[in-house]
Amino acid sequence: MRCGFSGEEGAGEVVTIGGVVIPRATKFKYLGSIIEERGDINEDISHRIRAGWQNWRKTSEILCDTRITMGLKGKIYRVVVRLALLYNSECWPIKKTQVQRLMVAEMTMICWICGYTRFD
Q1: Which of 24, 29, 30, 34 could lock 44 by a disulfide, CB 3.0 to 4.6 Å apart?
Q2: SS3 category, 15
Q3: How many angstroms separate the CA atoms of 15 and 17, rounded?
Q4: Which residues are 28's β-sheet partners?
Q5: What are the phi and psi torsion angles at 74 (to 5°)?
Q6: Do residues 15 and 21 lie in contact, with contact meaning Cβ atoms separated by under 8 Å?
Q7: 48-88 residue pLDDT tens
Q8: Per-residue pLDDT tens over the stretch 10-48
Q9: Are 69 and 60 in contact (CB under 8 A)?
Q10: Rounded CA gap, 14 and 24, in Å?
């Protein structure tokens, strides 16, 4: 991946290491975040939502159990699911549509914790 900080576009440049040509990438994963060449974060938002749902599935037996108090469910949700959902979000140049996608995922999870469905 190439960042054109100088404003010059080096489309013809080829990077080689030890005679091996390194292919140009438009995105890559670094420390759990997906970095894109254009600086867009849609792919990273989708990845974070998938990671949140993955952690949700791992803890759904506890989060959906009616015998466990809401306070304990809330603590487990904040520590396990929400941290995975919002990892590295402090440095996102986020837009309103992306915030809405995160809020929809989070509200769906919270409704499941409380035992509500769309019919309610």
Answers
A1: 34
A2: strand
A3: 7
A4: 35
A5: -65, -40
A6: yes
A7: 999 999 999 999 999 988 899 999 999 999 999 999 988 88
A8: 556 777 888 888 888 778 787 877 877 777 888 889 999
A9: no
A10: 8
